[in-house]
Amino acid sequence: MSKAKTANYTEQDIAVLKAGYTGADNATEVAALATATGKTPASVRAKLASLGLYVKAEAGAAASEGERITKQVIAEAIGQKIGLQEHEVEGLSKAPKAALDKVLAALA
After folding, report:
1. Which of 20, 73, 91, 95 is most open to solvent, judged by the fewest CB atoms within 10 Å of its CB?
2. Which of 1, 39, 5 is nearest to 20 (CA)?
3. How far is CA 58 from the centre of its chain?
4. What pTM does this model have?
5. Structural Rg of the chain based on CA atoms
6. Cα 96 from Cα 74, distance rounded (Å)
């Protein structure tokens, strides 16, 4: 015997999600929609994604303010200062970021 699958979201719930989600403020909108539909925020996010509506939030203010300084960028700066070859820079970029920051600061 197979059980009939019950819909987790009614057509009314889906209409609420479509009307209430703009993607402008993910955390606030998802929380409000979760309250309105009686679901968890994770469930609402998943449903919005399955509907093709969910827009992933930007990764912090650093990404929007300019180029993020990665280990690769720091390793390349160190490599330029001391004349490393490309394969040496690649190996250097695998070091911890804190150590790379200290080396670059000592070279400055």
Report:
1. 91
2. 39
3. 6
4. 0.50
5. 23
6. 11
